[in-house]
């Protein structure tokens, strides 16, 4: 057994540029955060993050740290900041390593972001994940359990907290090193890599609650709103030049048609192959004046035009033309409307990746109209599937990865009990679905009930994406899709 504080200090030194001579200094910095009373605590732990968690638990026990999770997170981030190099050093190391090996530089930064507990790997491991085979390939289903839900005490405390607009949002550069407060997450151990995109300075960081492997966020240094423009396409391809093994994409810039922070321009990326990437072209297209760009309609529940070329200017030119044409395009026959009284409805969710020497852009057509029948959005999950997913369909879900709410863990357990004939409390909004499952699977057993429910949830997610698709996968819908691409300008 070793003293908890000393063991933590040993691991900080082992995982940083600190040296043995710094041990007393580090011990005192730790005690300033967790209190002297923890000095008597012994431990057999070795893992740095586990040691940090134990320090927090002991500090809460002694009353030195508050019982609210937000208070503990602030102290925890400060503890892990002790082993995290300064922003200037992190950037220096990244770009020096990048000169010899981009993959090594990216990998080192990713490992640092995990090692210093900025990426919450233990929390992410709580997520429920599986795949469902559908007409569109294997869709990925996650029930998001990683982000802790606020308890009533935290909510009450946050309402009493002094208002602040610093940082302006969760994506601002000013989050780097920010202590945090009850209504803003702790970011003391947060680091951002600086990079230039054209004439703008941007940042590269990882998401603390990743939805997929190496879930990266690229953010504008300035707090400027989301906008899909020709510059968006150019910046996405520029990011591929820097991160050739990542995909990079953007949420849309209109409400309802995306699931993002619209107030701060940013992109997301990472090292993950989504079902959309694997989906085939089902109709080849050749656009007039852009014969060097391979194009086609993707077999996908949403309406996707895929462009591929080694000719970057031509690819960007065609993407820009499609965006401009879509923003102005209406087709009353299929309820597609560019604007209402000057309020725009049309935008694009773009996703970029590289295949060998080729740049590939998937342009997902979006429309954020509402109607009396569908007040949440015509191209939004419809009421009959909102018991599973009612939130907006953002970039990650567009590509085939469902981010489902944590409520479903308990709710689906009740549905399974119901199917097995056990005492259950099925939520009213699940009851019609549960009844249909019971009718379809009268012989369900303890061994099969999990798969029955999971399969159905996966198929419902496919339906959710179909609802979000502008052009439906019917003869009428596909004919309307062709009318639009003809409007863009097909080669004769």
From TrEMBL:
Compartment(s) where it occurs, according to its Swiss-Prot or TrEMBL record: Cytoplasm
GO molecular function, one term: UDP-glucose:hexose-1-phosphate uridylyltransferase activity
Similarity comment: Belongs to the galactose-1-phosphate uridylyltransferase type 2 family.
Pathway: Carbohydrate metabolism; galactose metabolism
Main enzyme class: transferase
UniProt superkingdom: Bacteria
Record domain Galactose-1-phosphate uridyl transferase N-terminal: where: 17-225
Any one GO cellular component localisation term in the record: cytoplasm
Protein name, UniProt field: Galactose-1-phosphate uridylyltransferase
Pfam families listed in its UniProt record: GalP_UDP_tr_C, GalP_UDP_transf
Naturally occurring in which organism (per UniProt): Streptococcus suis
GO BP of this protein: galactose metabolic process
Principal subcellular localization: cytoplasm
Matches recorded under InterPro entries: GalP_uridyl_Trfase_II, GalP_uridyl_Trfase_II_CS, GalP_Utransf_C, GalP_Utransf_N
Catalytic activity from the UniProt record: alpha-D-galactose 1-phosphate + UDP-alpha-D-glucose = alpha-D-glucose 1-phosphate + UDP-alpha-D-galactose
Domain Galactose-1-phosphate uridyl transferase C-terminal residues, every copy: 241-434
Keywords: Carbohydrate metabolism, Cytoplasm, Galactose metabolism, Nucleotidyltransferase, Transferase
EC identifiers of the protein: 2.7.7.12
């Amino acid at each position: 057994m070793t003293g908890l504080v000393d063991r933590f200090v040993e691991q900080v030194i082992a995982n940083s540029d600190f040296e043995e001579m710094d041990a007393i200094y580090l011990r005192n910095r730790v005690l300033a955060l967790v209190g002297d009373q923890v000095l008597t605590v012994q431990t057999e732990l070795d893992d740095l993050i586990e040691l940090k968690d134990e320090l927090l638990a002991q500090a809460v026990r002694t009353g030195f740290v508050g019982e609210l999770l937000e208070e503990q997170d602030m102290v925890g981030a400060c503890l892990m900041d002790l082993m995290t190099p300064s922003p200037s050093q992190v950037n220096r190391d990244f770009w020096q390593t990048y000169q010899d090996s981009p993959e090594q530089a990216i990998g080192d930064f990713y490992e640092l972001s995990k090692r210093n507990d900025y990426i919450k790997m233990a929390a992410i491991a709580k997520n429920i994940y599986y795949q469902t085979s559908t007409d569109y390939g294997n869709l990925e289903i996650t029930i998001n359990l990683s982000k802790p839900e606020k308890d009533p005490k935290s909510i009450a405390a946050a309402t009493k907290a002094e208002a602040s607009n610093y940082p302006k949002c969760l994506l601002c550069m000013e989050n780097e090193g920010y202590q945090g407060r009850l209504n803003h997450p702790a970011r003391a151990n947060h680091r951002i890599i600086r990079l230039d995109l054209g004439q703008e300075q941007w940042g590269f960081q990882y998401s603390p609650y990743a939805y997929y492997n190496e879930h990266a966020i690229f953010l504008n240094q300035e707090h400027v709103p989301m906008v899909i423009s020709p510059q968006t396409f150019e910046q996405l391809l520029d990011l591929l030049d820097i991160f050739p093994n990542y995909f990079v994409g953007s949420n849309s810039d209109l409400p309802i048609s995306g699931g993002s922070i619209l107030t701060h321009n940013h992109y997301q990326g990472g090292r993950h192959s989504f079902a959309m990437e694997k989906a085939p072209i089902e109709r080849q297209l050749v656009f007039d004046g852009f014969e060097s760009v391979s194009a086609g309609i993707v077999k996908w529940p949403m309406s996707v035009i895929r462009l591929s070329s080694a000719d970057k200017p031509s690819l960007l030119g065609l993407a820009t033309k499609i965006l401009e044409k879509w923003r102005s395009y209406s087709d009353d026959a299929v309820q597609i409307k560019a604007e209402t009284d000057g309020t725009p409805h049309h935008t694009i969710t773009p996703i970029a990746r590289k295949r060998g020497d080729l740049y590939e852009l998937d342009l997902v057509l979006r429309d954020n109209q509402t109607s009396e029948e569908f007040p949440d959005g015509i191209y939004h999950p419809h009421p009959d599937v909102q018991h599973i997913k009612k939130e907006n369909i953002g970039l990650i879900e567009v590509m085939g990865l469902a981010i489902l709410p944590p409520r479903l863990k308990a709710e689906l357990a009740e549905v399974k009990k119901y199917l097995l004939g056990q005492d259950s409390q099925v939520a009213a909004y699940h009851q019609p679905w549960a009844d249909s499952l019971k009718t379809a699977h009268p012989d369900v057993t303890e061994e099969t009930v999990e798969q029955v429910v999971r399969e159905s949830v996966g198929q419902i997610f496919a339906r959710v994406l179909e609802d979000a698709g502008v052009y439906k996968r019917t003869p009428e819908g596909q004919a309307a899709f062709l009318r639009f691409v003809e409007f863009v300008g097909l080669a004769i």
